[in-house]
Amino acid sequence: MFSVLRNLGWFFRREKKRYMIGLVLLIVVGVLELLPPRLLGNAIDDIVRGSITGTSLVRYIGLIVLLLLIIYWLSYIWMHKLFGGSNLVERLLRSRFMNHLMVMTPSFFERNRTGDLMARATNDIRAVSATVGFGMLTLVDSTVYLSVVLLAMGFLVSWKLTLAAVLPLPMIAVAMIFYGRAIHDRYSLAQDAFGDMNDQVLESVSGVRVIRAYVQERLDEKRFSDITEDVYRKNMAVARVDAFFEPTIRLFVGMSYIIGLTYGIYLVFRNQITLGDLVSFNMYLGMIVWPMFAIGELINIMQRGNASLERIDETVNTRPDVQDAVSPVQIKDPADIEFKNVTFRYPTSTIDNLSGVSLSLSQGQTLGIVGRTGSGKSTLLKQLLHEYPTGSGDILFSGVPIEQIALDRLHSWMGYVPQEQILFSKTVRQNIQFGLDNADDDTILEAISAAAFRSDLVTLSDGLDTLVGERGVSLSGGQKQRVSLSRAFISNPDILILDDALSAVDARTEAQIIENIRQERAGKTTLISTHRLSAVEHADLIIVLDNGLITERGTHQELLNQGGWYREQYERQQVENKLTE
Q: 268-306, pLDDT tens digit by residue?
């Protein structure tokens, strides 16, 4: 049950001063709270004996008020320390979780659903943070504070009365162990269901246009209703066990009260304790009610925290498929790129997605990659990003294998525009500045002009300050592509990778963008995969892929002379263009 605290040992060692102060003051406050009942009992005995005076009464009242003020101030300090630690560990865990996601490879996100990751980053981290705040409070109160109160009852009043009164209490521990196991199992299932619901909401919101287009609103509502019903049932299963905690504790504490009061009155009549002792004892008995509840809360919160920490650790302890180089080789610039007999297969694939690919590209050259859908064009480009473990063969930058180059260094050379553009829910300006922090408007407009987006900019309601909506929903496909191109152009990368990034623009706009690339990127390497062959006519080398194999290679004219797939496709596209015109 307490494995969650053991696994958070790194945090307690780091914040040991905070927790030493908080826990010591919590214990001190617990001891000081024993004094007012004892003072009240003494005052009652003085009244019974008739020895009370005005001066002694004022002294009793003054001492009780002073103790209450001290307890108030010390309670403020320990609460600030303990619950401040709860907020601190939540921030640390969330930062660590997010940083880990940033280094994970695509295969990780193929295995893990976004909704479930969001559930772990919110509910699970919050449950763990509660264990180092409220959990520590219940741990101390259910052990140290309970022991102190029981000792006070035994030493200051009567051991016989104390032992009789606590006879029902061990049954609480037995019940809590049983409830704790049930809470752990049911809470894990409830959190998994919450992750499923998150995933469903994300899919429904992001695909709302498709849902409406196919008139699937009612079906989607039914699907969401079913999944929320599942979340409800599993959380109710947790609540049903949770609801047993308080009645169970109240039952056994009530039995303690009955025994304490009945036996206490008997001892008063036998003159073994005084009336003041009995009053103090009943006040102490009332003080152990919270520690008894704290036992239940402790088991509840520790089991929740343990289940949540297991889910978080499952994510954080997953190692990325691609590890950074231990002793990376330093390269100033990627002078040339070379593929040597590269064969690659995706982790989920049963066939080779690239087979024996060999090519070389010097700095400043342009490579065109064409082929049928699914031929391996995107797969080839992604090899340069090193997102997956390399297969057989070598990928070299300036003669250095890609595995020996630091990932940050490698990615700093790249400007990547994928097939599916990812825009953030910010303005056009902020999306483009993502490629170059704090770029001024003149630099942004230059990048926009290179992407042939300047004429579209004036049609947007607020120009550069227009909000693009979630994933660029307020922009057309061609506009999203050109904003993504602007983001890549503004960073002026050593290697520009365009993965079918011109598919949503018309032929005239494409020709303008290609001409801008030729002028602006003289001396820098560019790789373009496309279905429209006019986009790569100018390339220094064009390769044709088919099922991961290079079937043709050469310049535009050389490929036309070969009379293969490239020529056939080029002539078909020329006819289509003439018909369109």
A: 888 888 888 888 888 888 787 778 777 777 877 888 888
Q: What is the largest CA-CA distance in the chain?
A: 123
**Closest Cα to residue 370, out of 545, 150, 502?**
545
Q: Could you tell me where the DSSP H helices lie in 359-439?
A: 377-385, 407-412, 428-433
Q: For the residues of 346-378, what is the DSSP string, one character each?
A: -TT-SS-SEEEEEEEEETT-EEEEEESTTSSHH
| Topology of the domain covering 418-492 | Rossmann fold (3.40.50)
Q: What is the CATH number assigned to the segment(s) 3-316?
A: 1.20.1560.10
d(CA 98, CA 473): 25
* Separation between Cα atoms, residue 394 and residue 103, nearest integer Å: 23
CB of 308 within 8 A of CB of 97?
Answer: no
Determine contact, residues 382/390, Cβ cutoff 8 Å.
Answer: no
CA distances from residue 575 to 179, 228, 351 in whole angstroms, order as listed: 75, 54, 36
Q: Which CATH superfamily is domain 329-413+495-581 in?
A: P-loop containing nucleotide triphosphate hydrolases (3.40.50.300)
Q: pLDDT of 425-442, one tens digit each?
A: 888 888 888 888 888 888
Angle between helices 289-316 and 217-269 (to 10 degrees): 150
Segments making up each domain of the chain, as ranges: 3-316, 329-413+495-581, 418-492
Round to whole Å and give the CA distance between 296 and 6.
20
Q: Could you read off the pLDDT of 336-348 as tens digits, one per residue? A: 899 999 999 888 8
Instruction: Give the strand pairing for 495-499 and 525-529.
Output: parallel
Q: Assess whether the region 3-316 and the region 329-413+495-581 belong to the same CATH fold.
A: no
Q: Is the Cβ–Cβ distance between 188 and 311 less than 8 Å? A: yes
Q: What is the DSSP letter of 465?
A: G
Question: What sign has the CA pseudo-torsion 299, 98, 83, 198?
Answer: negative
The dihedrals phi and psi of 388, each to the nearest 5 degrees, come to: -125, 155
Helix (H, G, I), strand (E, B), or coil: what is residue 337? Answer: strand
545, 373 Cβ separation under 8 angstroms: no
Q: Residue 271, exposed/middle/buried by CB under 10 A (0-12, 13-18, 19+)?
A: exposed
User: What is the SS3 string spanning 28-90?
Assistant: HHHHHCCHHHHHHHHHHHHHHHCCCCHHHHHHHHHHHHHHHHHHHHHHHHHHHHHHHHHHHHH
Q: What is the pTM of this model?
A: 0.73
CA distance 259 to 269: 16
